[in-house]
Amino acid sequence: MDRGLKEAQLERSARIFNVQKYNVHDGPGVRTLIFFKGCPLRCKWCSNPEGLRYDHQVMLKRNACINCGACVPVCPKNIHYMDNGEHKVRRDIKCINCKKCEKACLQNAIEIVGEDKKINELVDIVNEDKDFYRMSGGGLTVGGGECTNQAESLISLLESAHIEGVNTAIETCGYTDIEKLKKIREHVDLFLFDIKQMDPVKHKELTGVNNEVILNNLKYLLENGSKVRVRMPILKGVNDSHEEIKAVSDFLEPYRFFKNFDGIDILPYHRYGVGKYDQLDMVYPMEGDFSLSEEDLDNIESWIKEEGINVNLVRH
Ligand code: SF4
Ligand code: SF4
Question: Which residue ranges does the record assign to the Radical SAM core domain (predicted)?
Fold first, then answer.
């Protein structure tokens, strides 16, 4: 189908790990959310550990596996093996996504995460729900992982969506090259842009990277007319103090009255992704419960409102 883009762009692939339809949390209206695989950050509370690495990965549901060993001989890379009658997965070998193990397992205990989809195919998926977007003011949101990591594919997808008349949003950690960001922003109607912590040392400790690039990119977008909604994942005892919330409001103060600054979304900590760590042989890095009470959330909302910034609570 000619969508007004060069064939090479439509033939390009994006590596994704999920598509979520009828999403109402990540941008206005009803949206289709496409999750790109791979992320340069390692946030300790990440609820999508299967989106961190760009590689294809084996997810093993241990409670479904009966240790029959049927997946072992079919794997051309010897990734599956038996150890004293227990099925294990070698994590240091690159999976080539042949899916032979998935097919061999009669228990449905294996899922290979990571799918390379042509931009054309993704646009077809997005187009299925055009009526919902029209009725609700919704559209496409690309998240991850970190979608700007696959910048060329991202641009092709966003540009195609625009040609189809579909509104676009991206969720980003903001840790990306400014020149890439300048090209991407031409095709983005709304940035959902994370601020996780203003203190650079604490930011590095929590996410693995410094926040200088992130904050400079955010300033660039705000000062150059891109529509931005800031998102703050908040964990009790980690980044929820009045001082920390005030530091974010102070950073955003110069943009308070900018038409393109759309306010702040609070994303309270949750533990929905914890079970996936075990399926990937990863250890969940946070010990303890960092959930916020209703009172904590009310306080945070009122601190932001006091600074004259529009605030919204998003419960995923
Ligand atoms: S998808 Fe193929 S290479 Fe990857 S683990 Fe399964 S059988 Fe091995
Ligand atoms: S084939 Fe399925 S049930 Fe059998 S060992 Fe492999 S993952 Fe477990």
Answer: 25-310
Q: Is 110 in the pocket of ligand 2 (CB under 6 A)?
A: yes
Q: How far is CA 65 from CA 60, 144, 148, 178, 273, in A?
A: 8, 28, 36, 45, 20
Within a domain: 261: yes
Atom 8 of ligand 1: nearest residue by CA position: 75
Residues 182 and 261 in one domain: yes
Residues 181, 85 share a domain? no
What is the three-state SS of 182-212? HHHHCCCCEEEEECCCCCHHHHHHHHCCCCH
Ligand nearest to the CA of 61: 2
105 and 152 together in one domain = no
Is 2 inside any structural domain?
Answer: no
**CA-closest residue to ligand 2 atom 8:** 65
User: Binding residue per annotation — 105?
Assistant: yes
Summarised one tens digit per residue, pLDDT across range 248-281 is 999 999 999 999 999 999 999 998 899 999 999 9
User: Ligand 2 in contact with 89 (CB < 6 A)?
Assistant: no
Per the structure, the complete domain to which residue 67 belongs is given by: 57-112
Q: Rounded to whole angstroms, how far apart are CA atoms 112 and 66?
A: 18
CA of 97 to the centre of ligand 2 (A): 17
**Residue whose CA lies nearest to ligand 2 atom number 1:** 105
What amino acid is encoded at 220 in this protein? Y
Q: Is the pTM of this model over 0.85?
A: yes
User: Distance (Å, rounded) from C-alpha 238 to C-alpha 246?
Assistant: 14
